[in-house]
Amino acid sequence: MELQEFLDYMNRGGTVDGDSEMHRVMRRLSFEAMKITAELNSSYHEPEEIRALFSELTGKPVDESFAMFPPFTTDCGKNITVGKNVFINSGCRFQDQGGITIGDGALIGHNVVLATLNHGFAPEKRSSLRPAPIVIGKSVWIGSNSTILPGVTVHDGAIVAAGAVVTKDVAEGTVVGGVPAKVIRTLEQEQTKPTEEEIR
Asked: Which amino acids are annotated catalytic?
């Protein structure tokens, strides 16, 4: 099976059953991603080397404004798309089979998890995987140790407070926090960031 055929299927939200051909392709891509991330995380790399490895991981060109502090892990890589001036801090874990898109100017904090796969709820279907995309809008700030769940869109200019678990879409220009995440407040246009108390 060709990579694009796999990605098209996943981006349509197709279910992946355990031990199916689609599952075998998923495992192959996972091992390829592990090889590249092992190289990325095993020693010091200059910023341009990090960009080159991330480009190899995603299979797409990465803008020279992109920056990352390793370590970083993902179990696919080929369904990640990042814009310009994106920063990913250390310890992040992406599960991108369902598709992860990160808009221009987004900041991803330490140890953030972006997870695009759910398992079947019924015990007999537990090995089935159901993908749904995560979209991070422009100028979004995702605080450290946050988790974004499958199917969530964080709209432009929003902030996800540290430690939040985001289960639903986040409206443009809002601050959300908690487990599950709820709106803390709406940002005014002239404001650039919330107070420290609001994002703790």
From this structure: 119
